[in-house]
Amino acid sequence: VSGFMPLLAVQPGLKFDNPALLGPLTILAAAMVIASLLYVRCFYGVHRLFKRVRMLPHLKPAIGALATGLFALAIFHGLSILGSDVQHDSLSVLSFGYGILQKLLGGQFHYGLTTAIVLLTAIGLGKIVTTALSIGSGGSGGVFGPSMVIGGALGAAVGLVLQSWMPSVVTRVDVFVILGMASFFSAAAKVPVSTIIMVSELTA
Known about the structure:
The protein has 204 residues and is mainly α. The chain contains 8 helices and no strands. Helix 2 (60-78) packs antiparallel against helix 3 and helix 2 packs antiparallel against helix 5.
């Protein structure tokens, strides 16, 4: 039997040894609170909207799925100016979306600062919308996986901005990805302890 392999492999050497990092991480926490509030409002807003729509119940998830696909296509074509690689990565707003997290944590995310921030913000906010449309309309699925992508992408965007401002303090962005994943779902679902345990297991 092989040893334990985490779902999301993190580059070695990640450690917390600079108390000054608490300042940038406080900014990350505030950003995740705002993002989680937006997520909850969007999710339940879409859910209430579909409950008010009068039609056969099994048609509602189909409409939600169609809207999800159209929204993803809009992001895909909207980012065409940034290149085909950016467009490909923008499809993380669909399905699991774990691929973007694997790139971020594995050191395979190579874009310029502005392009990276635009892409990650589009993925994070876009995933909020697609999750609300697909599940809020009555579709089958969970919210934990999408929340990991939302928190990780937005956490990385915050980390990149702060790294450009204070490179001597924010030396690695992957810590913002991991803590973004944990803090976003902790705030959105009000389950901090279990989320910290799950994210720790996912990233070893």
